[in-house]
Design brief:
Blueprint: H1 2-11, E1 23-24, E2 27-28, H2 34-38, E3 41-44, H3 55-59, H4 67-76, H5 80-84, H6 95-98, H7 103-115, E4 121-125, H8 133-148, E5 152-157, E6 168-173, E7 176-182, H9 183-189, E8 208-211
Parallel strand pairs: 3-4, 4-5
Antiparallel strand pairs: 1-2, 5-8, 6-7, 6-8
Length: 212
C-alpha cells in the first residue's frame, strides 16, 4: 500500500515527481501555492491529522469562512448530528488534534475537511477504513452527491463496497497498474460486483484506485 500513498502524494503535490510534472488544469500541483491549491482540492490521508483549536477550525482547515459551508461539509460526511451533541457544538475545543474522538469519528471529521468549500477534486486514501456499515453508506451517498456536482473523486481502498460508486477502476500490484477501465468492465474481468457498503476486503497485494 506504500506505493499507493506515494502515488497520491504526487497527485496532491506533497512530493515532486522524479521526472515530468503532475498538472491539474494545466498548473503544476507541486509549485501551486498551498492555500490557493486547498480551495480546489480536498485530501483525506490514511493517517489522519486534525489541525485546529475547535471542530469548526478542523473542518474549515483553519479558514475563517462561512459557517454554512462548515455545516454543509459536516452533513455530507454524516457527522453533523454528532457535533451538535458536543458541549459547544462546532465551537467545542479539540485538544491534541482531536484525539478525544474515536477513530471512526476522526475519519468522518477528516472527510468533512476534505469535502469543505468548493473542491473540484477530492482525493481519499482508505476513506472507509474505520467506518461501519452505516458510515460507509453515508460515504457512498456523499460521493454520489459530489459526482452530481461534477466533482472528480479519486479513492484508494482495499474494501470493495465503496467501488460500487465509481465510474473507473485501476488495480495496482507491485507498484504498477495491472488493470484499468470502466468499472463494469473491471468488475466483470477482475472483481466480483460488490454490495454497497459491504465488508469484503481486497487482498493486501491488490489495492484498487477508483476515479469517479
Amino acid at each position: 500500500m506504500l506505493e499507493a500513498f506515494f502515488w497520491l502524494a504526487l497527485l496532491v503535490g506533497i512530493y515532486p515527481p522524479s521526472a515530468g510534472i503532475v498538472r491539474l488544469d494545466g498548473a503544476n500541483v507541486y509549485t501551486w501555492e498551498r492555500s490557493e491549491f486547498g480551495r480546489y482540492v480536498g485530501y483525506l490521508p490514511q493517517d489522519i491529522n486534525l489541525f485546529g483549536e475547535t471542530v469548526k477550525d478542523i473542518i474549515a482547515r483553519l479558514d475563517n469562512s462561512d459557517p454554512r459551508k462548515i455545516v454543509a461539509a459536516a452533513k455530507l460526511a454524516g457527522i453533523h448530528d454528532t457535533i451538535m451533541r458536543l458541549p459547544q457544538g462546532y465551537d467545542t475545543v479539540t485538544p491534541n488534534g482531536g484525539l478525544i474522538f474515536s477513530r471512526g469519528c476522526r475519519q468522518r471529521l477528516g472527510l468533512a475537511r476534505a469535502f469543505y468549500g468548493d473542491p473540484r477534486l477530492v482525493v481519499l486514501d482508505e476513506p472507509n477504513a474505520s467506518l461501519d456499515y452505516v458510515g460507509e453508506r453515508v460515504l457512498f451517498d456523499a460521493i454520489e452527491q459530489m459526482k452530481s456536482a461534477n466533482i472528480t473523486v479519486i479513492i484508494i481502498t482495499h474494501r470493495m463496497g465503496i467501488l460500487a460508486a465509481t465510474n473507473k477502476i485501476a488495480i495496482m500490484q507491485g507498484g504498477a497498474v495491472t488493470a484499468f477501465g470502466e468499472s463494469e468492465e473491471i468488475f466483470e474481468r477482475h472483481l466480483s460486483r460488490p454490495q454497497v457498503a459491504s465488508q469484503f476486503t481486497l487482498p493486501e497485494s491488490a489495492p484498487a484506485t477508483a476515479n469517479t
